[in-house]
Design brief:
6 strands; 3 helices; 188 residues; six-stranded antiparallel β-barrel; alpha+beta
């Protein structure tokens, strides 16, 4: 197995991950990408029909997919099952994904080597674990003072408090676009 020459930052349970910056072109993704290296288990087939399995590290990760570092390649459009655990002890993310593209080093061996996957289905609501990686820090920053407010404390039912806080957060997200996923909003 090749040695890692670069350590990528891992998010902490309390902090937001380091997002990838502007790549110089128009952004077509709906969700930001984080530079985070987490181990992925990927496989094709189930139980006794498993035909392939591997352990790969992510180069970056978003709610919609990941770039996985690899020295081998599978055909684009291959469907995989995958599992990965984020720092913080949450339930592992379980998903089905499609390989959408590959990256190969140039003739001098420079550049990344791996393939991109797009998540097409999540299992057991584990997509929430992934969304919390990006929004957890923001949500905590909003929820702590809001839930301590006179308005939020006036509700005696916990469900009413949660609904009120969600409505307040959504209002903030709509009126202050920087409160959303952290992407610049283009023209409507």
């Amino acid at each position: 197995m090749p040695k890692r020459t670069e350590q990528r930052p891992k998010p902490t349970a309390a902090g937001a991950p380091e997002l990838e910056g502007d790549h110089g072109g128009p952004e077509h993704r709906h969700f930001p990408r984080a530079r985070v290296s987490v181990p992925f288990s990927v496989w094709i087939g189930e139980a006794s029909d498993r035909r392939f399995s591997a352990k790969l590290d992510s180069v970056n990760l978003s709610v919609s997919g990941a770039l996985l570092s690899s020295t081998f390649f599978l055909p684009v459009e291959t469907m995989l099952r995958l599992s990965f655990e984020l720092p913080g002890g949450e339930v592992p993310v379980q998903a089905r994904a499609e390989i959408t593209r590959e990256e190969r080093p140039d003739s001098q061996g420079r550049g990344r080597s791996g393939f991109a996957v797009q998540f097409v289905e999540f299992f057991d609501q584990t997509e929430v674990t992934l969304a919390k990686l990006f929004l957890g820090h923001q949500l905590r920053g909003f929820a702590e003072p809001y839930l301590a407010s006179k308005r939020a404390r006036s509700f005696t039912n916990e469900l009413d408090r949660v609904v009120d806080a969600l409505a307040a957060f959504e209002l903030k997200r709509v009126t202050e676009p920087e409160a959303g996923w952290g992407l610049k909003q283009g023209p409507a």
